[in-house]
Amino acid sequence: MPEVEFQGKKFTVSDDGFLDRFESWCPEWVQWVQKEEGIEALTDDHWKVIHVIQDYYQKNGIAPMVRILCKVTGFTQNYLYELFPAGPGKGACKMSGLPRPTGCSI
Fold it and tell me: What is the CATH number of the domain that holds 18?
């Protein structure tokens, strides 16, 4: 598997750039994905989405569907794409440390 190195930390990733293990998630990973996705600054709304996704994943073993993410956060789907231009599946789940969600087209 490929490796990514950022700020002194090494991350093993899948071929499409998702962390190989959720347990490897850390603030440096978030900063690397932020840079890769071209997101200038992370807001409280970004962190809300990240924490909701992580909580859902830890409880259910899968990423939440977009409609569930919208319901829990109170954000519209359009707003999620403003926060994460690559989309909730690629950008938000990747930043949250999840494996590539089923049905996520890269």
Answer: 1.10.10.370
